[in-house]
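Narrative progress, year one. The postdoctoral researcher (J.K.) led the effort to move from monomer predictions toward full complexes, under supervision of the PI. The following entry was the first complex the group processed end to end, covering 211 residues in total.
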Amino acid sequence: MAKLPFNNDIKTLRFLSGEMTQGDLGDKVGVTRQTIAAIEQGKYSPSLEVAFRIARVFGKSVDAIFHWQDE
Amino acid sequence: MAFNEKLHWASFLALIAAFGWYFLSYPYQIIDTPAGVAAVAGMLVPVTIIIVVVMTATAVFLAIRSPKDANMKGDERERNFHIRGTHLAYYPLVIGMWGNMIAMFYRLSVAEHLNLLIATIVVAELIRVGSQLYYYRRGY
């Protein structure tokens, strides 16, 4: 698997949001639990729309959740 | 396992079971006779019934067990799997069609052509569904 050039804090933010489950976040964003798991693990690069939806759930900006890693 | 992945497993297994029976049971000794053509048509009826019944029963069973998942449309990751699977299936489909056209120059019987076409579609479908199952298992 080609490693994505960015990581994310979704798992931490879920924990800080009352231990929100992947399924709960998926329901709020409109994707499956499996898709949230793949995003969290850095296996799947979400669309800009899903990234914004995730950010809105946590009340943060996209770049506060997804962090570009310098090569 | 996601709802759509379960449906894909049902589709994959139904394809193997139905067309496995078809190709193993087809009376190849009469393939170059008019009865061979009738056998193709006659055997495609139970094949279609098997696939429709298995898919309908699986979808109903899964929807009753998990109505929320059943009502959810595939998300962007699943649509991506679908696009990539369909793309991969295009190649065996084209190869099969060319194979069939080339076979016309060798004066095959109508039933042989029909079986070649059916095999082409089955292989393409197995690759389409199988590749999507691979992507589901891999996660991306």
